[in-house]
From TrEMBL:
This is HTH deoR-type domain-containing protein. Keywords: DNA-binding, Transcription, Transcription regulation. The keyword Transcription applies. The keyword Glycosyltransferase does not apply. The lineage of its organism: Bacteria, Bacillati, Actinomycetota, Rubrobacteria, Rubrobacterales. It comes from uncultured Rubrobacteraceae bacterium. It comes from the Bacteria. Coiled coil: none annotated.
Length: 262
């Protein structure tokens, strides 16, 4: 009986590591639902895997031990696509005729930009993302300001002193901001320090900050802090987001919008 229990536990932990490798983070609530076991069982599994240095425990879940290998934009764009499309559609309500709309680099912000087909009038765009700028231009938009700067992979963001100087001179009505991690205490974080600094200037330029982040980002903490949650107006996420962490995020200040699946 004990050998069978051990085998089942190892199978379950194998699934946890596969999920972690696939999406970059795992939550206790989602794993509990997916594997049909209690939150306590999942927490014990995470404790065991953490003890083997196979993952790093964070609030409400776990992330990989090594956070330096950030996936490239093209890889990330294929992950959580259904959730990101739902988030992008829900985010449309924060854009109004005549707005200057800013976008940080990232796949979820790219999805927001890609759904903005000309229906609004007199929109101007500001971004440090070549992918976002090209998509807006392909969709028929004309007033697009690209920050310039050092081209950084894997997120294809333009960063550094040149980008920062440009963004300090601009203003936006709304910023759609992506992040590698969204945590009630650590705030918004990213693995890259230069990108964190440039994103900070985008935040400074905006009247309203709308964070677009799928549920796999919630509870995750990366190397560099962008801003605390107290500086965020709205967070748009998907239906898989654990209710407990959503409550904790709301207590930090932002309005939380949960996008309905299409």
């Amino acid at each position: 009986m004990l050998d069978k229990q051990k085998m089942l536990a190892e199978q379950r932990r194998g699934v946890i590591l596969e999920e972690l490798g696939s999406i970059g983070s795992v939550s206790v609530a989602e794993l509990s639902r997916k594997l049909g076991v209690s939150d306590m069982t999942i927490r014990r599994d995470l404790e065991e895997l953490s003890g083997r240095n196979l993952l790093r425990k964070v609030h409400g879940g776990a992330i990989p031990v090594s956070r330096s290998a950030e996936p490239h934009f093209e890889q990330k764009r294929r992950l959580k696509r259904t959730e990101k499309v739902a988030i992008a559609r829900a985010a449309q309500g924060f854009v109004h005729d005549g707005d200057t709309v800013a976008f940080s680099a990232g796949t979820t912000t790219w999805h927001v930009a890609s759904t903005l087909y000309p229906g609004h009038r007199d929109l101007t765009f500001v971004t440090n993302s070549t992918n976002v700028a090209l998509t807006l231009q392909e969709n028929g938009w004309e007033e697009i300001v690209l920050s310039g700067g050092m081209f950084r992979t894997p997120s294809d963001a333009l960063v550094g002193p040149f980008a920062d100087r440009t963004l300090r001179t601009l203003n936006a009505d709304v910023l759609f901001l992506g992040a590698h991690g969204v945590h009630p205490d650590a705030g918004l974080t990213t693995p890259n320090t230069a990108e964190a600094e440039t994103n900070g200037y985008l935040v400074d330029a905006a009247k309203r900050v709308v964070v677009v982040a799928d549920s796999s980002k919630l509870g995750v903490v990366a190397l560099a802090r962008i801003i605390p949650l107290s500086r965020v107006d709205v967070i748009v996420t998907d239906q898989r987001a654990p209710k407990q962490i959503l409550r904790e995020i709301e207590l930090s200040g932002p309005q939380v919008v949960v996008a309905e699946s299409p």
